[in-house]
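Researcher: Re-running this chain for the archive, since the previous output was lost when a drive failed. Same request as before.
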Amino acid sequence: MDEDSFTIRHVTTGQCLVATGTARVGLGPCPPTPGPAQVWKWGSGQRLFHVPTALCLGLDLHSKQPGLFPCGPQGLEGVLRWHCLQGALLTAYQMGLAVSGSEVVAQRDASDVWTADQTPGGVCQRTYREEGCKNLFWDAGSGLCYQFVSSVAS
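Model: Regenerated structure tokens:
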């Protein structure tokens, strides 16, 4: 992990937010050395960027469930932005990231506390820096970072 990357730990359960499939998030153990499913960083536009998939944490407006979505500016702008309030992660419509049973869900006015790594500060203590766009394309017009993946046939 680079210095801008972190894990997102749910304080009550002690488990980490993980990518569990192509577009889903869930909880998993927080090992001393995080695996790819657990590596996050702040992106531009108040987005939480899942590093290995190059997708952003967001809220599906139809199902009201959190998941991973393309980070681009079209269509999902409102549901990709996150802000903190006393350790809680909140997005559109006062929906917050929460744990219900063993599931990661979005709940109105959620107060679940999430930390970055094992530090006492919340996730918002880790801030986005434009330098965090290393090896990514920075679009100054939209204020977003993009990753271009190309494959080479051999």
